[in-house]
Design goal:
Blueprint (H helix, E strand, L loop, with lengths): L1 E7 L7 H9 L4 E7 L3 E7 L5 H10 L3 E5 L3 E3 L9 H5 L5 E3 L5 E3 L9 H5 L5 E3 L1
């Protein structure tokens, strides 16, 4: 499961992610990271059996944790299946099915927001 971690500025400079990995033994994959002087944000992929423990450990450190059951919201009724999202997505979330209609594999999404900006009909939103 993917988790969105939001680190307030006062938590910068501490190896929270490394500590949680060592404490839990979870094999965490960092899908996306954005850190600046004001805040830090990570999207991590955690094995299902470790999600609750990992989330608890981050929350105990003051990190805001959001479970991303579906990182994006796709409005199929609004979609015209033009493929703009396919051409820009770096993770292969979107593809055409055998009928040339968009297929979405939301579990691959890292919330980079590129597809949202590329969609001409605003059929994609970050969840």
């Amino acid at each position: 499961m993917k988790l969105l971690l939001s680190f307030p500025s006062h938590l910068h400079g501490m190896p929270h992610t490394a500590e949680v990995i060592l404490e839990t033994g979870a094999k965490i994959n960092i899908d996306r990271a954005n850190v600046n002087a004001v805040c830090g944000e990570l999207i991590i992929d955690v094995p299902d059996e470790k999600v609750e423990e990992v989330a608890r450990r981050f929350e105990a450190r003051g990190v805001v944790v959001k479970r991303l059951l579906s990182p994006i919201s796709w409005n199929e009724e609004r979609c015209i299946h033009c493929g703009a999202c396919i051409s820009v997505c770096p993770k292969g979330v979107f593809s055409f099915d055998e009928n040339w209609r968009i297929r979405v594999e939301a579990s691959k999404c890292v919330r980079c927001d590129v597809c949202v900006k590329a969609c001409p009909l605003n059929a994609i939103e970050l969840a």
